Amino acid sequence: MLIKNISGAKLARKFLLPLAVTAMIAAPVAVSAQGLTYKSAKSAGVIGEKPDGYLEVVSSGNAEARKLVNSVNIKRKAKYTELAAQKGVTVQDIAFTTGCNLIAQTSPGEKYLAPNGQWKTRDGSPPQRDARCP
């Protein structure tokens, strides 16, 4: 993978997505009449952000949470694919950079996957991110 061969600074210059793109990817998505949304599921710690740019069900995952995660991840992959083609890089490069940004933007109480592979709950301090993150 290209990311392993580039320093964080070079990665930031080459692949850093505008905040507007990251915000668009993280936009709240309603998936059921019962009201589970991206925002409410993240706030409740049911889903969390991963460094690879995708969501995962963390705890108390039910069918509705899995449906939400699948829906958001499909949309993210489509956007990553589009951006990768425009920039001439891999989908994984775009997804990783976006994952770094989304983890950095988590709020206290939200879950994210730390570099050691453990789910963490964001507190008032900066989240633990991959050393390759810009």
Describe it for me?
- The protein is an alpha+beta fold and 134 residues long.
- It has one domain.
- Helix content is 45%, strand content 9%.
- The protein has 5 helices and 4 strands, in the order αααββααββ.
- Strands 2-1-3-4 form a 4-stranded mixed β-sheet.
- The two termini are 16 Å apart.
- The relative contact order is 0.20.
**Rg, Cα atoms, Å:** 14 Å
Global shape:
globular
Oligomer designation = single chain
Q: Can you list the strand order of the major beta sheet?
A: 2-1-3-4
In terms of structural class, how would the helical and strand content be classed? alpha+beta
Summed up, the domain count is 1
Number of helices: 5
What integer is the average pLDDT? Answer: 81
Number of strands: 4
Instruction: Report the uncertain regions.
Output: 1-20, 28-33
First-last Cα distance: 16 Å
Order of helices and strands: HHHEEHHEE
**% residues in beta strands:** 5-15%
How would a crystallographer describe the biggest sheet? 4 strands, mixed
Percentage of residues in helical conformation = 40-55%
Quick description:
The protein has 134 residues and is α+β, with helices and mostly antiparallel strands. The chain has five helices and four strands, in the order αααββααββ. The chain has helices at residues 8-15, 19-25, 38-43, 63-87, 91-104, and strands at 47-49, 55-57, 111-113, 119-121.
